[in-house]
Amino acid sequence: AILASIHHSLPEFVRPKIEATVFSAAGLGMLLERLWAMPLAERRAVVGLPPERADVILFGAAIYEAVLRVFALPLLGVSLRGLRFAALLEPPGSAEVGRG
Predict the structure, then answer these.
(1) What is the CA radius of gyration of the chain?
(2) What percent of the chain stands above pLDDT 90?
(3) CA 14 to CA 1: how far, in whole Å?
(4) Which of 7, 30, 67, 80 sits 20 to 30 Å CA-CA off 48?
């Protein structure tokens, strides 16, 4: 949710906008590069990033980017519903796994 807030420069929590956010691997990589280039004091002033999370956001974003890269996923959607609702799904039209 924080990465979506940063992406949209949201000064406050806007659930529909956050949950509608989808990152491509390239888009997430560009956001990560932008954040890594900033010193901590500058990251604390980024709109959408709570100042107390400015030190750890880099590592969370790097994990998401790695998941996209390692699993060759084209997109990452943002969900506020928690891990129990998360799933890795094949894009429509791709080959089904486990069927023969």
Answers:
(1) 15
(2) 62
(3) 10
(4) 67
* Strand (E) or helix (H) holding 88: none
CB 35 within 8 A of CB 57: yes
Note the pLDDT tens digit of each residue in 51-73.
999 999 999 999 999 988 898 98
Three-state DSSP class for residue 23: strand
Quote the longest CA-to-CA distance of the chain.
55
Give the position of tokens 């590069």: 33
In this model, does residue 16 exceed pLDDT 90? yes
The Cα 7–Cα 48 span in angstroms is: 8
Calculate the alpha carbon distances from 95 to 38, 71, 77 in Å: 41, 15, 21
